[in-house]
Predict the 3D structure of the following.
Amino acid sequence: MKEFIKRSEGLWLFTRSPAVMVAAVIAILIFIGAAFAPWIASVNPYDLGSFSLMDGLLPPIWQEGGISQFMLGTDDQGRDMISSILYGARLSLLIGLSAMAIATVLGVGLGLAAGFYGGRFDAIIMRIADIQLALPAILTALLIDGIARGILPPEVQQDLRVVVLTLAIALSLWVNFARTARASTFVEMNKEYVQAAIIMGQGPIRIMFIHILPNILGPLLVIMTVDLASAILLEATLSFLGIGLAADSPSLGTLIRIGMQFMLSGEWWILWIPTLFLVALVVSINTLGDFMRDVFNPGLR
Amino acid sequence: MFYFIYKRLIQSVFVMLAVAFLAFSLFRFVGDPITQMTGVETSVVDQERLREELGLNDPFISQFGRFTVDMLQGDFGYSFRTRQPVAEMIASRIPATLELGVVALLISLVVGIPAGVYTALRPRGVITQTILMTTLIGISIPTFVIGIMLIFLFGVQLGWLPTFGRGETVNIGFWESSFFSIDGWRALILPAVTLGVYQLTLTMRLVRAQMMDVMRSDYIRFATARGVPMRQLYFRHALANTMVPVITIIGLQFGGVIAFSIVTESVFQWPGMGLLFLESIRFVDIPVMGVYLVVIAFFFVVVNLLVDLLYVAIDPRLRV
């Protein structure tokens, strides 16, 4: 085991940085908690019958009046905070991960093609990317969301909120992938293995995805991590602004928005526990992203 | 040099046309303007007549042409929601957002540049490490959470500062300013800090990276060897050469400030353009959304032109 760790540079660096290890543990715990929320959480916050108003506004267990059934207290509806947060994180991560996946596929595909074909195709894609890069992601996402509200018929709006939100976030994040993939593809294009594959008459799709893609994966992984954090933040921000998800299916951002109402009245846990949870999640993912950047770019160390 | 500015001007015109086109497409294709303008009781015949009168059956290009000419004359149409002219609605909100943005940008630069220089010059110091750790957390904390934390601390717990609105404003012509009253400044502090923190971390990191780069360069080593005093070395030789990228970020950050002001304005109920934009999204008020885009793009273009002119002023090589 020790030998193996020493041979892999990334793992070796990992064992040497406690902050990164803590971040990894937090991130993994949250992922597991979110993935298995229906089995871990004591109540289902979407099911109105599973909690009762009688349990409303109970403080966390270490504060006077807290009971062990609700370790982190309850909100005004009597929902267990732990359950709300786990379900909220589940939704946030679901949207974040799908948005990141869509952005990756779209961005890497376009970037690879732009780098491979060059010429006019490349120019068009990169102009679009430039324009979008000038607009901050939050503005793009808000705009796409607004357009969707205008186009979609009102009766499907509520059902499609998650899809719209995911697409809005994905479409505001693809640029990073496209630019990185394109730049790396340009470098790879001049290498002999690609030239050889072209001369052998292999198809462009095969060359792009079987030959070039595996060689440019490193930097893309870094962007995937960083963009996952951005996607989660974007979703939280949009939900907080009341543009994202509705209050009956709360994500972390919605929980924070709801908690704002209790800032003045002393029920601090309804606001601060989801906030702390969101920040912990994003900080650990960002820390992991920074670490991966160091691993893949030895020059920056 | 004139050619350079001329080229940039032409580019800016094209950017503005592209944005106007986007705004026009929004207005024309997202929902039907006629159904927005008329009620349920309007007959189909009347709807068709209105459509013809407004020229919505004309060729696309001539409609876009009319739209652009109207915009150039300051006619931005009417809001679907309030039935007021959009131009007035947005104009009354511009001062609030610009004042907030300028103060936030100033905070970002006044704190960010010295911090960046310091952390570059003392890369191993304890203070540097602390600052870097703080900025990593600062980048990860979403703007709205920073806002909530500031409201909680200074507004609720300590009760020092107001947590919403602009406070007392003074009218200077059409410009409603909060710069001229103590109450206005007090109301400005929390939102401006919230908006400035994220930009501050960006400024700091960029100045630091640039400064470290410059410090490694040959002319700095040579100057050190020549015995140039440290102070002069740092601030005349090194910092001057990091100024060009720093000005670039001011240009870029302006966009970030405007975009994130949407979030900040929502947290603090600051009556600026961002809040108006949010409301217009919620009510699918397409004309306001479109005009907001055009106005923002206009600010972008102007700021970027100014940045280009500043390059010429700062970097003598561009004056050839």
